[in-house]
Automatic annotation (TrEMBL):
Domain of life from the UniProt record: Archaea
PANTHER family to which the protein is assigned, alphabetical: AMINOTRANSFERASE, AMINOTRANSFERASE CLASS-III
InterPro entries from the UniProt entry: Aminotrans_3 (IPR005814), Aminotrans_3_PPA_site (IPR049704), PyrdxlP-dep_Trfase (IPR015424), PyrdxlP-dep_Trfase_major (IPR015421), PyrdxlP-dep_Trfase_small (IPR015422)
SUPFAM superfamilies the UniProt entry points to: PLP-dependent transferases (SSF53383)
Pfam families assigned: Aminotran_3
Protein name (Swiss-Prot/TrEMBL): Aspartate aminotransferase family protein
Naturally occurring in which organism (per UniProt): Halospeciosus flavus
Molecular function per GO: transaminase activity
Keywords recorded for this protein, A-Z: Aminotransferase, Pyridoxal phosphate, Transferase
Length: 431
């Protein structure tokens, strides 16, 4: 379908799939051709495409009262806030709502800088934290940063930490050594920048668009210790990794540390309606109340979105979280079997239902880089096209060249088997 009034940047118009309908982990185009959606439409539709209880809850709320000013109370908003705080990491007592993940990160930045009275923020090179000015300034993906680098004065206040993968700059032989070297480097950055000038460190517990990297064991514990020692707030960006995507309510739980702020979006409503927010500790919540800081937008905590959020959380609790935990080992071993089978698959990393399959030149061992960022081919676009021909949609990570595998939490064993088989056939067809 031609969409001439909607400009886009990700490829020729006729390559863009039109998605018209969906059911569970499957979507259909306008002609009824079906595809397994193994990216959950941007890691978002965690409960699957036909979750009746979410639709009913939204309809019921819209009938009762569709919109209540974000400066007033309304029962559904309070109910969702209570559910979120109950499931949040210990120490987080309050939630501020926004509409998008970018705005949630903007708000986290504003709160952290105000609380600490400090301008700088640490983030990770290659990370993605959003497209608005502040969130893009925080983002380490060069393509997203490029336009704001030119015009936004605040970009200079973000200091980047290197990526945590073995292709990164730390010459480590084991995960333990990588954790130690990366944490030592973090301490060096903190001292070099001046601890008093740094408000916060913002990080994804498990990488998302940059490739589903997990931190080496022990890394986050050292990060927490360093943040405590130098009085820096730890912000976990759980926009992708939260709400069961990695098998827990929030992926930071798997690292055994408690952050000071958590930002969330996408999975909170399973993306049936736009909603995002920031979970904060008592000190930050108190500051907002004492100083009367404005924190929201007109649609922040929209009642229909909150109804979707309450129903989505119930759906996760009623079996979907369980399903991820039960089937994640199967997804992992399927993807690892591709690593054994194809020399070009250099690494498989991730957690729960969020995985990256990374490619490298088998002759040289060099990882491929996205040509939009660095020189080189991007064979992953061909793998994605082959998979789509065979009826499975995956995502592409960047800037290292990866296939991202991230199905709805309702995906079944058969669907996982099919997706892994199709990915293998697609790799075979390209290399
Ligand atoms: N943080 C992360 C980790 C993300 O992946 C994204 C979007 N993919 C965002 C923030 C921004 O969210 P939104 O697109 O809703 O603004």
């Amino acid at each position: 379908m031609e969409q001439s009034a909607i400009p886009h940047w990700y490829g020729p118009d006729d390559d863009v799939l039109t998605v018209a309908e969906g059911e569970d982990a499957t979507v259909y185009d306008e002609d009824g051709t079906e595809y397994l959606d193994f990216l959950s439409q941007l890691y978002s539709v965690n409960a699957g495409h036909s979750c009746e209880r979410i639709v009913e809850a939204m309809t019921e709320q819209a009938r009762r009262i569709p919109y209540v000013s974000s400066s007033k109370h309304t029962p559904i908003r309070s109910e969702l806030a209570g559910k979120l705080v109950e499931r949040a990491p210990d120490g987080l007592t309050d939630v501020f709502f926004s509409v998008t993940g970018s705005e949630a990160n903007e708000l986290a930045l504003q709160l952290a800088r105000e609380y600490q009275d400090a301008p700088k923020v640490l983030s990770r090179w290659r990370s993605y934290h959003g497209s608005t000015y502040g969130a893009a300034a925080l983002t380490g993906d060069p393509q997203t940063r490029a336009p704001v680098e030119k015009h936004a004065a605040t970009t200079g206040y973000t200091k980047f930490l290197p990526p945590l993968d073995f292709g990164g700059p730390f010459d480590a032989d084991t995960p333990e050594e990588l954790a130690e070297k990366a944490a030592d480097h973090l301490e060096w950055v903190i001292k070099n920048e001046g601890p008093d000038s740094i408000a916060a460190l913002v990080t994804e517990p498990v990488g998302g668009t940059s490739g589903a990297y997990t931190a080496p064991p022990g890394y986050f514990e050292r990060v927490r210790e360093l943040c405590d020692e130098y009085d820096i707030l730890l912000v976990a960006d759980e926009v992708i990794s939260g709400f069961g995507r990695c098998g827990d309510w929030f992926a930071i739980e798997g690292e055994g540390v408690e952050p000071d702020l958590v930002t969330f979006a996408k999975g909170v409503t399973s993306s049936y309606a736009p909603l995002a927010g920031v979970l904060v500790n008592e000190g930050l919540a108190g500051m907002v109340e004492d100083e009367g800081l404005p924190t929201g937008q007109t649609f922040a905590g929209h009642p229909v979105s909150c109804a979707a959020g309450v129903a989505a959380i119930d759906a996760y609790e009623d079996g979907l979280l369980e399903n991820v935990r039960a089937l994640a080992p199967e997804l992992e071993s399927g993807l690892r079997s591709l690593e054994d089978e194809y020399d070009v698959v250099a690494d498989v990393h991730g957690r729960g239902f969020l995985w990256g399959v990374e490619f490298a030149d088998p002759e040289t061992g060099e990882h491929f880089f996205d040509p939009r960022v660095d020189e080189g081919d991007n064979p992953v676009s061909d793998v994605l096209a082959e998979a789509r021909e065979r009826g499975v949609l995956f995502g592409g990570g960047r800037p290292t060249v990866q296939v991202i595998v991230s199905p709805p939490l309702c995906a079944t064993t058969d669907e996982i088997d099919t997706a892994v088989e199709v990915l293998g056939e697609s790799i075979d067809a390209v290399f």
